């Protein structure tokens, strides 16, 4: 089969690799029907994730059709149309029993495109299939379902839920890429009184307002001005970091109120300053996290019932064999206007 592999920092290759097979009783092999690219894949290609070694098939988000399952898989069979979650655990270890699949002790967690071969391929082996796969209703398209593989549960669990967004609260979201926009969509489920988004790109600010942000501003100075207006100068109840660079994390700590929460969602490849000399007295909570995908069934129900509008998040579409072109578009959002890209196999 054909797949995209990481071959060291800055190098990705689309070429022939061996077909995956069931190697354990809880595995499934899935034909990839639709796949996407994540900002985390760009971090890998920059060398920010040293656990990813040369030769690894990239990707952790896909929709597909089950081809084969191991003897212990009970919930899925060949022919089933499924969502592949970016994270899944064994379901039995100390962390999985608390729905912390991202911290699985038995080989689960974030493994696809990280510790084992991933989804940017014609086929993929999926461990812990009963926990990793989700049946898709006919009312949810492949393109819609792709957004449930990572960005929607990540934004909801690590941004909105960890950030303690509640009805009537005020929310600042720094970054209006796919994760930031997903944070806008899922924050709205909690009916906050005000959502302000910060992003330097005009197109992304427009996308944030279409997604439901009350205001989108270009920089830190404008964000601090918006804070004064939207919160009577107190600061936002929740500040969600959705980029993964030191400056955006530090801006979140400037925007949050005393007693508020900074929810870090972005993947960081460099240290960020933590100004405890200013924060220690403010009762600020700072959360981090890797998505556990416990919210995926709920979000899938909302999507199927038309309660979660993802229109506009996918901006570019390609054939799977055009994946190199898709990467070129996705990694240059300022020029291309790309948010999420979708690639279809056949």
From TrEMBL:
Span of domain Alcohol dehydrogenase-like N-terminal: 24-130
Keyword Kinase included in the entry's annotation: no
Boundaries of every Alcohol dehydrogenase-like C-terminal domain copy: 178-303
One Pfam family per UniProt: ADH_N
Keywords: Metal-binding, Oxidoreductase, Zinc
Listed cofactors: Zn(2+)
Superkingdom of the organism of origin: Bacteria
PROSITE patterns membership: ADH_ZINC (PS00059)
Name of the protein in question: Alcohol dehydrogenase catalytic domain-containing protein
């Amino acid at each position: 089969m054909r797949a995209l592999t990481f071959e060291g920092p800055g190098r990705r290759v689309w070429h022939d690799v061996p077909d995956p097979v069931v190697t354990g009783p809880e595995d499934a092999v899935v034909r990839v029907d639709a796949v996407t690219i994540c900002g985390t894949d760009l971090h890998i290609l920059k060398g920010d994730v040293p656990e990813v070694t040369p030769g690894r098939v990239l990707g952790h988000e896909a929709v597909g059709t089950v081809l084969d399952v191991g003897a212990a898989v009970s919930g899925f069979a060949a022919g089933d149309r499924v969502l592949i979650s970016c994270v899944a655990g064994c379901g039995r270890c100390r962390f999985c029993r608390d729905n912390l699949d991202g911290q699985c002790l038995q080989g689960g967690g974030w493994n696809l495109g990280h510790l084992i071969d991933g989804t940017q391929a014609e086929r993929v082996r999926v461990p812990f299939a009963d926990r990793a796969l989700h049946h898709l209703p006919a009312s949810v398209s492949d393109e819609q379902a792709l957004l449930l593989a990572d960005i929607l549960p990540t934004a909801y669990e690590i941004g909105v839920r960890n950030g303690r967004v509640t009805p009537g609260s005020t929310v600042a979201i720094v970054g209006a890429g796919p994760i930031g926009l997903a944070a806008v969509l899922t924050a709205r489920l909690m009916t906050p009184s005000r959502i302000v988004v910060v992003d330097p790109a005009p197109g992304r600010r427009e996308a944030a307002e279409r997604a439901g942000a009350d205001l989108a501003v270009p920089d830190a100075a404008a964000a601090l001005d918006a804070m004064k207006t939207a919160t009577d100068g107190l600061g936002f109840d929740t500040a969600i970091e959705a980029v993964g660079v030191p400056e955006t994390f530090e801006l979140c700590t400037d925007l949050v109120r005393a007693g508020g929460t900074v929810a870090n969602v972005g993947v960081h490849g460099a240290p960020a300053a933590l100004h405890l000399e200013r924060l220690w007295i403010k009762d600020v909570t700072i959360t981090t996290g890797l998505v556990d995908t416990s919210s995926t069934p709920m979000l899938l129900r909302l999507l199927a019932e038309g309660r979660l509008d993802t229109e506009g998040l996918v901006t570019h579409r390609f054939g799977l064999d055009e994946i190199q072109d898709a990467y070129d578009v996705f990694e240059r959002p300022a020029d291309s206007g790309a948010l999420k890209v979708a690639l279809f196999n056949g």
